[in-house]
């Protein structure tokens, strides 16, 4: 017996947790300008932490994971890790 499935559009799925959840993601310096086009050029091989909204839009970047988690809390967002 098969169970009924609920199919969500990518847009609806991206909206889940909007305004409530933020994702913490480790990013390499080579990826920073993809997320933040106005960021300065950085030396390759460095690790940074990005805070992304529920839809994946970048909110902030830092060299400190604690800083992005604290920023999420200050903005009433639940920070979850993204692997």
What is the H/E order?
Answer: HEHEEHE
Count all strands and give the number: 4
Major sheet characteristics: 4 strands, mixed
Distance between the termini: 34 Å
Oligomer description: single chain
The neighbouring-strand order within the major sheet is 3-2-1-4
User: Unreliable stretches, pLDDT < 50, 5 or more residues?
Assistant: none
Helicity range of the residues? Answer: 10-25%
Report on this structure:
- Helix content is 24%, strand content 29%.
- It is α+β, with helices and mostly antiparallel strands and 83 residues long.
- The protein has a four-stranded mixed β-sheet with strand order 3-2-1-4, covered by helices on one side.
- β2 and β3 (58-62) form a beta hairpin.
What layout of secondary structure does this protein have?
Blueprint (H helix, E strand, L loop, with lengths): L9 H6 L5 E8 L3 H4 L11 E7 L4 E5 L2 H10 L3 E4 L2
Quick overview of this protein structure:
The chain has 83 residues and is α+β, with helices and mostly antiparallel strands.
